[in-house]
């Protein structure tokens, strides 16, 4: 059964679309294995399953204890969203973003980022994170990493060595080189809240789904206090 929180997300859908979404969530609830997620966490995990058709995310998805609350507070406060690739930025609902005055940024295609990566022999993803730090876009941001493990590893380094403080990290890079390892490293952080998908699975679609889930939770909190 769809919760009231999930129903708030349906306001962006037609009646037919909302019915399909509600039926999908009801199917996921019925078919999912038992889990230990709290209701807010399950709202997010269920959307990952819905976006991927993969029930493995019931179990692979891990939460820092402060993650959901930090994400909601950051989005309510209009924090920037920093994306490792354009696919995440393009997938975000403009209507949901506008509700909170949010802006999403993707820096991997910036000429100076590309030039720095070539000059220093690093990936563009690494240089994009460094550029975000220099430009003041990293501290207080919600950072979504769905494709580039090197971006996540650089972000962790900046947190540990340079006291960078994003509001929340969505660590969900997909792949076979350093993806699982970068997320295992993220799981050791306590200073910054995170939500991650363990192992090799991940991707931009999951980061988008997680961000939408957090926006829906934030909208529900706003309605409760209106």
UniProtKB/TrEMBL annotation:
PANTHER family: COBALT-PRECORRIN-8 METHYLMUTASE (PTHR43588). Pathway: Cofactor biosynthesis; adenosylcobalamin biosynthesis. The keyword Isomerase applies. Belongs to the CobH/CbiC family. InterPro entries: Cbl_synth_CobH/CbiC, CobH/CbiC_sf. Keywords: Cobalamin biosynthesis, Isomerase. It comes from Thiocapsa marina 5811. GO terms for biological process: cobalamin biosynthetic process. This is Precorrin-8X methylmutase CbiC/CobH. The lineage of its organism: Bacteria, Pseudomonadati, Pseudomonadota, Gammaproteobacteria, Chromatiales. Residues 20-216 form the Cobalamin biosynthesis precorrin-8X methylmutase CobH/CbiC domain. Transmembrane segments: none annotated.
């Amino acid at each position: 059964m769809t919760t009231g929180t999930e129903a708030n997300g349906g306001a962006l859908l037609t009646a037919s679309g909302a019915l399909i979404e509600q039926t999908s969530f009801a199917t996921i609830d019925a078919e999912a294995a038992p889990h230990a997620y709290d209701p807010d966490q399950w709202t997010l995990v269920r959307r990952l399953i819905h976006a991927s058709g993969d029930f493995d995310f019931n179990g692979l998805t891990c939460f820092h204890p402060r993650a959901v609350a930090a994400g909601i507070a950051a989005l309510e406060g209009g924090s920037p969203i920093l994306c490792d690739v354009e696919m995440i930025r393009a997938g975000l609902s403009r209507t949901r973003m506008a509700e909170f005055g949010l802006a999403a940024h993707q820096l991997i295609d910036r000429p100076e980022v590309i030039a720095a990566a070539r000059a220093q022999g690093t990936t563009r993803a690494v240089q994009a994170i460094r550029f975000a730090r220099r430009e003041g876009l990293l501290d207080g941001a919600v950072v979504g990493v769905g494709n580039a493990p090197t971006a996540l590893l650089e972000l962790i380094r900046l947190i540990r060595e340079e006291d960078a403080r994003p509001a929340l990290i969505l660590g969900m890079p997909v792949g076979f080189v350093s993806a699982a390892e970068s997320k295992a490293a993220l799981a050791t952080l306590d200073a910054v809240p995170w939500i991650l998908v363990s192992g090799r699975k991940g991707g931009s679609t999951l980061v988008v789904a997680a961000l939408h889930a957090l926006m829906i939770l934030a909208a529900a909190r706003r309605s409760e206090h209106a």
